[in-house]
Design goal:
The protein is an alpha/beta fold. It contains 18 helices and 16 strands. The strands form 4 sheets. Strands 9-10-8-7-6-5-4-1-11 form a 9-stranded mixed sheet, with helices on both faces. It has a 3-stranded antiparallel sheet with strand order 12-13-14. The chain has a two-stranded parallel ribbon with strand order 2-3. Helix 8 links the parallel strand 7 and strand 8. The longest helix is centred in the middle third of the chain and has 17 residues. The chain is globular.
Length: about 400
């Protein structure tokens, strides 16, 4: 038992309850790698054996702790890479196999990421028949010029065809759009935001382009990126345009129509549990201990598809690393997620999900409320508008070393 677990018991804190369970499945292959992308994605090899990979993911999924497998999965997310490269047959086998290993709730949200250049309406219909009920389209832009600069394999016409097809097949779908792109102006972005908002999409994700280490853009950065002030103005513009169209910002990059928030991502942001399978996939599960405490276990799969397959076929699991998250590290993990939410979370959720007594962070909360980074309501842990602008600083205030002086009291 860690120091904080012992203090929780000594202060009579309630035993934490197990959070909801989600599933993340990673498809690591793309037609080609985009210059801004730092995700675990690889150019698809010729003659890719997709069924071999699907069967390996199912073996890998079965390797998670038995205690976790008794809890029903409430959301499934197929990300990548480009999952829409999968055939309908492979996806059907995967989702059928998942249900044979793990209980899945009847109303589970099942999302698949799709690239407009790798799917059409007939394929969307196959995905829907296989069980997908929410699509996430990687549009990124409705401009041929900006799509070319981003290295996308589709053009603006292809983006619009994909949106129209998605609307005919799915009543719930998301569009990913990027802003602060090379050469982009406020007026260009206004047009992008309005077109996205005027589509039939129920959810929009607007991401600011950032230059990530190890990407092609990091080696050869575009010379005409908007400066910091213009990028901030762009973020405010997006929020105004989408609000006028009925999209409410509920997360740093997420905007949703009423009742259409992404349940899978909300489970991430509220420190829920999620098992994972696929090359490079990460998972987190909470396991109850006999003494009334619990353990938080994290696992990461081999990032290389070849190493991932070899590990599963040799020992039945694709996990490269597995470890328990110490109590002292859980406040930062919780805040790294929860503070992304515009409305934050109930203060009582902190202890329920982390097993760490709220008093451990109370002085830090008071300090941040006084500085205007957190809302003044003691019943909620929520960022102010200023807090969202300085989100990284706000999150880092809960690092173990930043809380050490309070943990010793």
């Amino acid at each position: 038992m860690t120091t904080l677990d012992a203090r929780r018991k000594a202060h009579g804190a309630k035993a934490p309850s197990l959070p909801p369970m989600s599933l993340y499945l990673h498809w690591p292959w793309c037609v080609r790698k985009c210059p801004y992308c730092d995700f675990n994605s690889h150019r698809a090899p010729a003659g890719l054996d997709e069924m071999r990979y699907v069967e390996a993911m199912l073996v890998d999924l079965a390797a998670w702790p038995e205690a976790a497998k008794r809890r029903p999965i409430e959301t499934i997310f197929l990300g990548g890479g480009t999952p829409s490269l999968m055939s309908g047959e492979a996806l059907e086998r995967l989702l059928t196999g998942v249900r044979s290993i793990w209980p899945v709730t009847e109303n589970a949200e099942i999302t698949l990421e799709a690239n407009p250049g790798t799917a059409d309406e007939a394929k969307f219909e196959r995905f829907r028949a296989a069980g997908v009920n929410r699509l996430s389209l990687g549009i990124q832009s409705f401009s041929d010029e900006r799509l070319k600069r981003l290295g996308r394999i589709h053009d603006a016409a292809g983006a619009r065809r994909a949106v129209a097809a998605a609307a005919r097949v799915f009543e719930n779908f998301n569009l990913d759009v990027m802003f602060a792109l090379p050469g982009e102006t406020l007026e260009m972005l206004r047009g992008e935001a309005r077109e996205a908002a005027d589509s039939a999409a129920t959810h929009l994700s607007f991401y600011q382009l950032t230059i990530e280490e190890g990407t092609a853009f990091a080696k050869r950065p575009p010379s005409d990126l908007p400066d910091e002030d213009l990028a901030a103005d762009m973020g405010e513009l997006v929020e105004r345009v989408l609000a006028d169209a009925g999209f409410r910002r509920y997360e740093v990059s997420g905007y949703a129509k009423e009742g259409r928030r992404c349940r899978h991502n909300l489970n991430y942001w509220t420190y829920g549990d999620y098992v994972a399978a696929g090359a490079g996939a990460h998972g987190k599960v909470t396991l109850a201990n006999p003494d009334g405490t619990f353990s938080v276990r994290r696992e990461a799969r081999f990032a290389s598809p070849a190493k991932y397959l070899a590990a599963i076929e040799s020992c039945g699991s694709g996990a490269e690393t597995a470890f328990e998250v110490e109590s002292e590290a859980r406040p930062f993990e919780f805040m790294l997620n929860a503070l992304r939410l515009a409305e934050g979370v109930p203060a009582e959720l902190f202890e329920a999900r982390t097993g760490v007594p709220l008093f451990v962070i109370e002085l830090k909360l008071e300090e941040l409320r006084a500085s205007g980074l957190l809302v003044a309501d003691p019943a909620r842990i929520a960022p102010t508008e200023k807090g969202l602008l300085f989100l990284s600083d706000l999150q880092e205030a809960f690092l173990p070393e930043a809380l050490a002086e309070f943990n010793g009291r």
